[in-house]
Write a structure and sequence with these properties.
alpha+beta; 7 helices
Length: 248
């Protein structure tokens, strides 16, 4: 006869293990493998929002999330393109985000500077290592984008590599060419600019404005919410810029 709630099997094993340790006895047989906190690939069901996917968080844990994307201009931190995906990996996002930015620039009737042959001057595009792939570099260059994509994470306190001189050899791989490109004086300058272009934008939205989670559910609604957040970010930037100009 059971009195009170039934102890589940794993709870019973915990009690047995505690008694074994108290008596100084060792467990018979092979020790169980340590518990792996990483969720399985198929563990993606969320009854609250089925379209959200498990993603790694900044606190090294996992949670159901969406991946917010933004393309930011280097002059006034204006968000030129904004999208949301439920894919944790960014490797497939660089090209569609660049295309969305180009479409918005064209829709705004912003003229791009032309080269001597009449083609638009390639637009520098910096992104972290999550966006790098050989295919992404190739596709971005075909679109008239000048990519500067990190090929790997740089360790903290690692020695700074010397500035690369000249051009990379034609026989090197796309990854090696990009590594060389990022080590040039121009590459170092452009990539370092990310610290005051795109990174502060997410900090302003999350910390200054306190927007750290989406209120809606479903990819379509979350995408609309993110674009509204980015719209209000741009309005604040325009208002502050106009106020600064008027006060000067």
């Amino acid at each position: 006869m059971l009195v009170g709630p039934r102890i589940p099997d794993d709870g019973f094993e915990v009690l047995v293990q505690a008694q074994r340790e108290a008596e100084g006895r060792k467990r018979r047989g092979k020790e169980p493998a340590p518990v792996d906190a990483t969720p399985e690939d198929k563990a993606q069901t969320n009854f609250t929002d089925p379209e959200a996917k498990i993603m790694k968080q900044s606190n090294k844990g996992f949670d159901y999330s969406y991946n917010a994307q933004a393309v930011v201009d280097g002059e006034d931190q204006i968000i030129v393109a904004a999208e949301v995906t439920n894919q944790a990996n960014d490797k497939q996002q660089g090209v569609p985000m660049a295309q969305a930015a180009l479409d918005n620039v064209q829709a705004a009737q912003i003229d791009r500077p032309k080269q001597a042959d009449g083609t638009p001057v390639p637009i520098p595009n910096t992104a972290d290592s999550g966006y790098f792939s050989e295919q992404a570099v190739e596709d971005l260059e075909k679109m008239g984008i000048d990519p500067y994509l990190a090929t790997g994470r740089q360790k903290h306190h690692a020695a700074t590599l010397p500035v690369a001189e000249g051009e990379s050899t034609p026989t090197t791989s796309t990854k090696e060419k990009m590594q060389h490109k990022l080590r040039t004086a121009t590459g170092k300058l452009l990539y370092a600019a990310r610290k005051h272009i795109v990174e502060p934008v997410f900090g302003q939205i999350k910390s200054a404005r306190g927007i750290r989670k989406f209120l809606l559910r479903g990819l379509k609604k979350v995408s609309a919410e993110w674009q509204l957040i980015c719209l209000t970010h741009n309005l604040l930037k325009i208002w502050r810029r106009a106020s600064a100009v008027a006060g000067s």
